[in-house]
């Protein structure tokens, strides 16, 4: 199992489009994915679960991955956060 804190840097936070991108990226991997923010823990491969976090700009989330491809999944998810979900802001 690996964990990493990630900063939500895009202006709109984890809104519907950003959440869909995150879920799509993580769903390509076999590892179990959990996202933790504001005292809540959700399945990071669930659009509804991630949306319930209501994580806005500047929020730090903890991504926890466990499985055979956890390192590759973490690299892909971290890259998405670093690219600000490809929103350019």
Automatic annotation (TrEMBL):
Subcellular location: Cytoplasm
Record domain HPr: where: 1-88
Keyword Cytoplasm: yes
SUPFAM superfamilies xrefs: HPr-like (SSF55594)
Domain of life: Bacteria
Pfam families: PTS-HPr (PF00381)
Classification via CDD domains: PTS-HPr_like
Methyltransferase among keywords: no
Keywords from the UniProt entry: Cytoplasm, Phosphotransferase system
Family: Belongs to the HPr family.
Name of protein: HPr family phosphocarrier protein
Native source organism of the sequence: Luteimonas rhizosphaericola
Highest classification ranks of the organism: Bacteria, Pseudomonadati, Pseudomonadota, Gammaproteobacteria, Lysobacterales
């Amino acid at each position: 199992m690996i964990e990493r804190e990630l900063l939500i840097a895009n202006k709109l936070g984890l809104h519907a489009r950003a959440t869909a991108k995150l879920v799509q990226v993580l769903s390509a991997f076999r590892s179990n994915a959990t996202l933790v923010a504001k005292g809540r823990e959700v399945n990071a491969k669930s659009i509804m679960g991630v949306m319930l976090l209501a994580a806005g700009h500047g929020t730090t989330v903890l991504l926890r991955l466990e499985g055979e491809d956890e390192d590759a999944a973490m690299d892909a998810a971290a890259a998405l956060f670093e690219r600000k979900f490809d929103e350019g802001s």
